[in-house]
Amino acid sequence: MEHYNMNLTLKVWRQKNQSDRGQFETYKVSNISSEMSFLEMFDVLNEELIQEGKDPIAFDHDCREGICGMCSMYIDGKPHGPWQENTTCQLHMRAFKDGDTITVEPWRANAFPVLKDLVTDRTAFDRIIQAGGFISVNTGNAVDANALPIEKAKADDAFAAAACIGCGACVAACKNSSALLFVGAKVAHLGLLPQGEPERKERVLNMVAQMDKEGFGACTSTGACEATCPKGISISNINRLNKEYLVASLVSEK
Amino acid sequence: MRLLAFVPYFCSDFLTHNLVSMTWKQVFTSSVGRKLTMGLTGIFLILFLVVHAGLNACIWANDGGVMFNKAAHFMGATIVIRILEIGLFVFIFIHIIQGLILEASNRSKRGTPYAVNYGNRGSKWYSRSMGLLGTLVLLFLILHWIHFWIPSRFTGTPEVTYDNKTYHDLFTLMKEIFAELWVVIVYVLGCISLGYHLAHGFQSAFRSLGVHNKKYNNMLTSLGYGFAVIVPLAFAMMPVSMYLGWVS
Ligand code: SF4
Ligand code: FES
After folding, report:
1. In 3D, which of B169, B187, B170 has the Cα closest to residue B238?
2. How confident is the model over A93-112, as a mean pLDDT?
3. Same domain, A70 and A127
4. Domain enclosing residue A182, as ranges
5. ipTM of the complex
6. CA nearest neighbour of A190 among A116, A133, A248
7. Is A40 in the pocket of ligand 2 (CB under 6 A)?
8. Could you tell me the pTM of the whole model?
9. What's the average model confidence in pLDDT over B26-44?
């Protein structure tokens, strides 16, 4: 692809802290290379803001290679921007043209309150994981990984579900702010493997209960989450969770 | 006297033992449980639609409504069906209440709206508008009950006699009601709302019940689209053919 430079107008959500009302600010950036990532463009802008003695724009990021799930910008109406199966940090400026105006917002959901500018508090996901997104094992020698036979198809499905990086884009895209793609991915990933099998029923009941407590909405199977997920997590994981939940609530001792 | 002493014991025993288990309560109140009940009641209502459409298709027998009136009489007079009717109303009620609660609660989860709308990527407008479509169907249903169900159960309809037996003449009632153009238009609009409601609801109901195999999901989606077109179309054709005088 041909390399080019561009001048852009950015409308960015600025909010001092959780109690501030917040508003959009407009910025101009010039000479942005089409080879830059979206976050590098923000780095350039922030350098300029610092030089002018202004407060730089706060945004989350860590690995910048699409694997950690920290970056979280809602760009022109799409979480992680216009490309599919892609994270904000891996969105390149060649997705835009010279003269474009880009609107950047934080994830919007009551369960993900804005801390500052584009940074949201996503610890609700951590608490959902703590409620059941694990397997309990005794300490001691690590067991030989190949000792347990696992059906290939199941291993593949579990692996595909395990690709979730916990970014929260599914919540951001969903009209109901539902976290069920994330929770479904975890429940399917662990439930499909023999190591996760023993705690299967408690897991789904506890994780769903925690999810509701955190204030996420209910899934209505619209499909927006699947289309937005940077890791292509399939909505069939949600259906699988529904089944697990139905079975667990029918046979639970409580 | 000694026997009576057991009464308070039984009462307290009854109260301390939960009649409904914890997880069953969750099935009705958790986010996943709510959609489970939506799916379950939805599938029951889908089955009812098949029966209702099949029965009403008797108007096209072109026999002056004899077959239709007799079929309707059978539905009203058979005890099993009257019991199922109670079940139907309970299910409709649960479907409506759960649906309204779901919609209200889901709408409350994003305090600050986005400046730029997410749009259609991955989802259809009707999938995102189930609350609205459901409400339109409900409004239509209320009108429909006023037109047919209430007269046939309570306030009375015209009557007709075949072989010395009197029947409700619902056929004549239909002809009277569907002589008005605005009624026909409202019914057709109601059927269109139902069609879109089913286009999402049919396949989504099975997902909510946990069908996750891709082959079944694909099958159910195609089946759902077919159902969502054919059944509402059959319903819509009834007032239209009455209005245009296609049935006699
Ligand atoms: S399911 Fe996809 S969108 Fe949701 S948290 Fe995981 S990686 Fe992010
Ligand atoms: S910064 Fe790690 S995924 Fe984007």
Report:
1. B187
2. 97
3. no
4. 123-252
5. 0.91
6. A133
7. no
8. 0.91
9. 90
